[in-house]
Amino acid sequence: MPQGMYKSGRLRKIFVKTPGGRTTVQYRQRKPRAAVCSTCKKPLLGVPRELPSKMVNMPKTMKRPERPYGGILCSPCMRRRVQQEARSEK
Amino acid sequence: MTLFSIGRICVKLAGRDAGRKCVVVDTIDDRFVVVDGNVRRKRVNTRHLEPLAETIEIKSKASHSDVKTAFEKLGEVVWEKKSKTPAARPRQVKKKHAAEEEKSMKKPVTKKVSSKKTTKPVEATPDIIESVEKTSVETKE
Q1: DSSP secondary-structure letter at B63?
Q2: Which domains does chain B have, with CATH numbers?
Q3: Is the pLDDT of residue B46 over 90?
């Protein structure tokens, strides 16, 4: 039987095949939810789904697309917003 | 006559230059144009451009410097290409050579003078005051 702390489902299971042929269960931390667009709530592409400890060591360019509103809005929503801004200027 | 004729000022909608102003410099076909200005000079789809009401007088296939002068008249900024100068990489030297190099590089060791100076508070004697006044007068003249 697994220990009590492994029964709650807090950690995800990984089945690992050992060199001896047995399969054992290892427990890993669950990944955070995928980043979503703030208007349409669709998952954002180009934003890695990693633990905060890994995200800290990543360069900025790897964490979000290099465009205005990158990592906050998806590209169609961003285009719509930029278009509205351009039209409302004049 | 299309909306994206030469000299039309637009806003880019897609990519890293989105939201920046540009001007149509050349038309390739009914779908693609070449833009320049506060963006990277490149061929773009007109679906990625939002035309504005303004147009400027500019030659067909105008160079970047021409666009720059035209944009400066409007009071707009122009995107300039940053020249990439790679940083000097640290030279890897083998351990044997490194030891030899260090020997040759070593300079005759000079004794470090202790930075702590024992300065006594100088009393303002009349001689010193006179000399200071003299120098100040000279500098004024």
Answers
A1: -
A2: 8-74 (2.30.30.30)
A3: yes
